[in-house]
Amino acid sequence: MKRLVILGGGESGIGTALLGKEKGYDVFVSDKGKIKEKYKEVLIHNEIEWEDEKHTEEKILNADIVMKSPGIPDKVSLIKQLHEKGILVVSEIEFASKFTNANIVGITGSNGKTTTATLTHHILKQELNVGLAGNIGDSFAKQVLEKGFENYVLEISSFQLDDIKDFKPKIAVITNITPDHLDRYDYKFENYIESKFRIAMNQTKDDYLIYDADDEVIVNHLKNNPVQSTLLPFSLVKTIENGAYLDKEDIKITIDNNQIIMPTSNLALEGKHNIKNAMAASTVAHLLKIRKQTIRESLENFQGVEHRLEQVLKINKVQYINDSKATNVNATYYALESMDAPTVWIVGGTDKGNNYAELFSFVNEKVKAIICLGADNEKLMNTFGGMVDVIVETQFMSEAVKIAYKIAEAGDNVLLSPACASFDLFENYEDRGRQFKNAVRNL
């Protein structure tokens, strides 16, 4: 009986444990932190051995295969020991993909991947049997075990891609690549780029890679490191023969001389970056033979993603917007770009080596006040102190929202778009977004 050790007792870990047990592995789950009660109950109910608040090495180093949570870096000594012993260390995506013959659409990128994955799933589910997993919702492994969908849309992070071996999506999407998580990649942007491109490393000419042809990082990397996949780029500024492009107000998508045209005038989501997300999702749908009418209707009635430029409430003619999912500078760039009124901007958190320079023109043009919400706000205060009349700092979401309420006048926006990770003051970006929304509702 092969021994499967799972490091990390979160959503992906528990899903993998259940799938592994079903497939005849001897399963052991180990988490250095506390495993949540709801997950403990699942493990106990399924008679799966587990431990938390420690890693017992002798129970781990005898594994045949290890599935590690994407949150654990390779630099950790336990992972180094596993590699030295030649024990296979994989991600949940890799493990679960062995047990399904489904069509897989894998979506990665620094920004836009959640919206693109959710939108793609929203279109496909109108006509296909399809699951949505990866970084979203129920784990991929659990869905492979319980649902057995014929198609999956997977939102995949670079950390998950670092631990794939044979994983090969039929259709891969790279939305964009901007510096993010560099703390995990020895502060080398090139390492992070290579990590994202692993999504296509096992693809053949019968598989497809959809990518942003306006993103110089992607285009240059492809030039110097060609892939086997059939390429389907999308662009807002170039004319694309095979792929998608914007022609005045219309998205035109061509695959094998078969063209469909989508008007952008009624897209549910606003902003240039959402035209790109719509192009990527529509290209996937066109490849999978979804009807044009279905694609168009789906783009027009899509509700968007929680914590991503989510309009919360209007109070005294001030619009409060929750963009807690903006955990890097580029995401906040899109948020500020889409602001069409003077904005009180709430920013801050765990800085991953951020360079804020690309935000300066928007801050000068649109931001009237900045509220720094982080455990350490020194860098933000130094960077933006001279650009706005009002800059304050706080460690509490409720206080940040009260300050914003005092500063904002009729017609303004209050935007939470942190440009940073959330772990200094919050459990995760969802917790941060929910606290913001609760604070707004309590005004």
Written description of the protein model:
Helix 1 runs parallel beside helix 7 (140-146), helix 6 packs across helix 11 and helix 16 (397-407) crosses helix 17. The protein is built from 17 helices and 20 strands. The mean pLDDT is 94. The strands form three sheets. The protein has a nine-stranded mixed β-sheet, with helices on one face. It folds into three domains: 3-90, Rossmann fold, CATH 3.40.50.720; 94-301, Mur-like, catalytic domain (UDP-N-acetylmuramoyl-L-alanine:D-glutamate ligase), CATH 3.40.1190.10; 310-441, Protein-Tyrosine Phosphatase, Chain A, CATH 3.90.190. The relative contact order is 0.09. It has helices spanning 11-22, 37-45, 57-60, 77-84, 92-97, 113-124, 140-146, 158-162, 189-197, 216-224, 272-287, 292-301, 329-337, 360-366, 378-384, 397-407, 429-441; strands spanning 3-7, 26-31, 49-52, 65-68, 88-90, 103-108, 130-134, 151-155, 171-174, 208-212, 230-235, 243-247, 250-255, 258-263, 310-315, 318-322, 343-347, 367-373, 390-394, 413-416. The chain starts with a strand and ends with a helix. It has 443 residues and is an alpha/beta fold.
Please give a quick description of this structure.
This protein has 443 residues and is of the alpha/beta class. The chain contains 17 helices and 20 strands.
| Cα distance spanning the termini | 59 Å
Strand content: 15-25%
CATH topology of the largest domain: UDP-N-acetylmuramoyl-L-alanine:D-glutamate ligase
Number of helices: 17
What structural class do helix, strand and pairing data support?
Answer: alpha/beta
Domain tally:
3
Biggest beta sheet attributes: 9 strands, mixed
